[in-house]
Amino acid sequence: MSKQNELNELIKETIAPLFKAKGFKKKGKNFAKLFPDFAWTVNIQSSKWNTKNEVEFLFNTGIYCDKVYTTLDGLKSPIFPLELYSMLRLRISDIKNIRENWYKISDKTDIEEIKKQVESDIVNVIFPYFEQYQNVEDIINVLETMDEQGEFECPHHLILLYHYYGYPEKAQKRMEVVYLTS
Description:
By secondary structure, this protein is α+β, with helices and mostly antiparallel strands. It contains 7 helices and 6 strands, in the order αββββαβαβαααα. The protein has helices spanning 3-21, 66-73, 92-96, 111-131, 136-148, 155-164, 168-180; strands at residues 25-27, 30-34, 39-46, 54-64, 87-91, 103-106.
């Protein structure tokens, strides 16, 4: 069996059931749990250096908000929200606060050990990470904290969240700060 087929089997037999049990929907190597105003998103990224004898992959996570995506990008809402369209995009290594770490399937790999590690990371890292985002206010709070620490990617996300979710004064103030300092 090729290593890519082993990864596909791992996704089908181990990864997908874990996400589905938590209410995630699946499309290809992407998972999303939908809420009224946002979604938790996960992508299984394969390495561009994969070969038939060695496959590496990792998990990317994101918090997707349709109003932010459609406003910033001027596009229609996607049928299935992807991690690529999300804000608060983090790799699992970022959540674990470790150096980037890819899971590897090769002839030397104990596939049962990979299954255990992947399952542990999904259950003990990814799911608890997502639990901090129960509503839009949680997303705003995390973005504000990140912004205060200088760790935030896009200053416009907060403007839009403030605007759409009932904080017009904060939206106006943030817009003035962002545009005056640009």
